[in-house]
Amino acid sequence: MTRERRSGVTDLDGDVVDPTLIRAALAAGDPLPGTGGFAGSLDGTLVRDVLGRRPLFVDRDDPDRWSRTLTDLARPRSLPAGCVLDAAGERRVWSLPDPEASAAEPALGEVTDAVERSVRAVDPDGLAVAFSGGVDSAVVAAGVPEAPLYVAGFDGAHDVAAARAAAEAMDRDLREVTLSHADLERAVPEIVAATGRRNPMDIAIALPLYLVGERAAADGYDRLAVGQGADELFGGYAKVIDPADDHRVDADTVRGARRETVATLPDQLERDVLALRTAGVEPVAPLLHDRVVSAALALPERLLVADGERKVALRAAAEGLVPDRVRSAEKKAVQYGTYVSRELDRLARQAGFKRRMDDHVGRYIADLCDDAYRPRGER
């Protein structure tokens, strides 16, 4: 099932993007030219799409050296999303559109068409699906009906129970990755090395993805379909519901708060792509295709949040794709739904890093990584 890795400007599935699309996007300043994102070298210029859907790094001391991974460069820095780098230097060429809200009915029609087209366009070859039982991953899974579904979590975890119920409702094959403390202890240093991050939130989010990707790769799959982007684009976060009274966002409108969450995607995607790639799979994110992004950005507030319900438009678009009980299901953030955050905290305390200490889990992660890279005779 191994697919050839390709050079040039590649998208989030590792496929080469038509260079004429990117040249036209550069000439017109079009940030959403109809791709799944891209990063690489084109005509001697480094380019990275407006949402940073694929990582791209440049050596701080030698800008002529670049890579799609951190580990290939001595002093890597990320090329910011929406930027190019050439002999004239680095500059921003694309910014995320900020369209006026469309009328509800045509906006919902655009989203429904974009979501269905994107999930059905996914190539099933060598593909598995990261599946949590929520509407995001269920919609992605619906587009590839023959692909196996994978869920990770500790015994009794919410995500595992939700995935079982959803897979049964969809009549799909579900493979469970039961996590252990040994899995976390082994994987944490590997994720830190791949992503360059040690903060507990990033690590807790990346761990379930990494361990699912690792299991899928061991089973012979080299691509993992994910639901990334749905929460950001469609208003999936609680802080979007009543932003004027929520200190976690600066905006005081639903659409403004949604835009703030979309702006976090480049940083999140860099972490997730690097972690999954290190696990042995390439991520496939159909809900981040330009057509979905463009349609979602035009949604009016009541199709993002209504009467406390989030992701209104996505749930409506999922009608007919997934069973009603699945498209209406609420889920926890992955780090909590899998119990990974809880068990990282437990491991930290067992290792002597008590909760009364500042950043006790972060200190444990740093200690775990330092021990992993210490010569064996010094451990």
Instruction: Name the CATH homologous superfamily of the largest domain.
Output: HUPs
Rg over alpha carbons: 20 Å
Counting copies of identical and different chains, the oligomeric state is single chain
CATH class of the largest domain: Alpha Beta
Your description of this structure?
The chain has 379 residues and is α/β, with parallel strands linked by helices. It has two domains: 19-92, no CATH class; 104-337, Rossmann fold. It has helices spanning 19-28, 104-120, 135-142, 158-170, 181-195, 200-218, 230-234, 254-262, 265-279, 290-297, 312-317, 324-327, 334-337, 340-350, 360-373; strands at 39-42, 45-48, 57-59, 66-67, 76-78, 83-86, 89-92, 127-130, 149-153, 174-178, 223-225, 282-284, 305-306, 309-310. The strands form four sheets. A five-stranded parallel sheet has the order 10-9-8-11-12, sandwiched between helices. A four-stranded antiparallel sheet has the order 1-2-6-7, with helices on one face. Strands 4-3-5 form a three-stranded antiparallel sheet, with no helix packed on it. β1 (39-42) and β2 form a beta hairpin. It is globular and about 55 Å long. It starts with 18 loop residues before the first helix and ends in a 6-residue tail after the last helix. Residues 1-7 and 373-379 have low confidence and may be disordered.
